[in-house]
Amino acid sequence: MTELDALAPAHQGRWTHDGVTVEFSASLAAGTVDVRCTAPLLVEHALSSAHIGESVVQRVTDLNLSQREFELVMVGLVLTTVSDPVQAWTTYYRNSLDDLLSGAADFAPVHARAEALVTGSVLDLGSCFGFFPLRLALDGVDVTATDLSAGTMNLLRTVAPHLGATLDVLTCDASGIPVPPNSADTVTALHLLEHVDEELGAGIIDEAIRIARRRVVIAVPYESEATACHGHVRTFDGAALDRIGLGSSLPYQVDEFHGGWLVLDTTPADARAVSIR
Q: Of 68, 236, 253, 254, which sits with the fewest C-beta atoms within 10 Å of its C-beta?
């Protein structure tokens, strides 16, 4: 498996990486995505710049691909729809943010709820493409995006100025963020914990608590079966989130809204006591 450069241009509407080929085809009906389950995998499409964004994620999910195939197909669709790579990804980000902010995207309610819960400066764990940190940055929040993938963090760093957003970007493991304790008011982990096993998840939560001066906001999907193409390896319910909250020895709240939410209060006990009086 070779390193993926998401900013490498497609050649004449055709992009290939690690056995996956994505190709623009003018012979298909506009907006079509056609998959040939061969070896190598071939995906032909007739998407326009208006199609690439979060709205196409579910369509690719429905193709029942492996996680790696899903990721490569998404990259290929973007790079074969708009010829210039930076312009292609800027279009993808802009369309996705529009869908998320308007409520059209499936994930929109999660981002809206998370934004309502954060306070002060924010450090986001497992940011992936970074749509949530961008949303906050565009609203003037001091925010840092983090992810293990150097490729997606480089992509976010490259595209953010084209969107008029200013934010910090760190490439690192979510269980070992290179920042001092209490360095952000809020730490968010949105749909991250389902991607890691219980042991690593516990380390991520400990790290979030170490960094957060005031609050940790965790969101997870409620699934009966882990969605493999998205890299999910475990499932959650309210009882599982309650166990995490109890194990933290911090004041916490669990509720349900388009999945499960756990909010931990990391404000020092003496400060909480003063605020109650």
A: 253
Distance CA 210, CA 229 (A): 31
**Tokens encoding 165:** 């957003």
- pLDDT tens, N- to C-terminus, the chain (277 residues): 677 889 999 999 999 999 999 999 999 999 999 888 677 899 999 999 999 998 888 888 888 888 889 999 999 999 999 999 999 999 999 999 999 999 999 999 999 999 999 999 999 999 999 999 999 999 999 999 999 999 999 999 999 999 999 999 999 999 999 999 999 999 999 999 999 999 999 999 999 999 999 999 999 999 999 998 889 999 999 999 999 999 999 999 999 999 999 999 999 877 765 443 3
Q: What is the largest CA-CA distance in the chain?
A: 71
CB 78, CB 49: distance < 8 Å: no
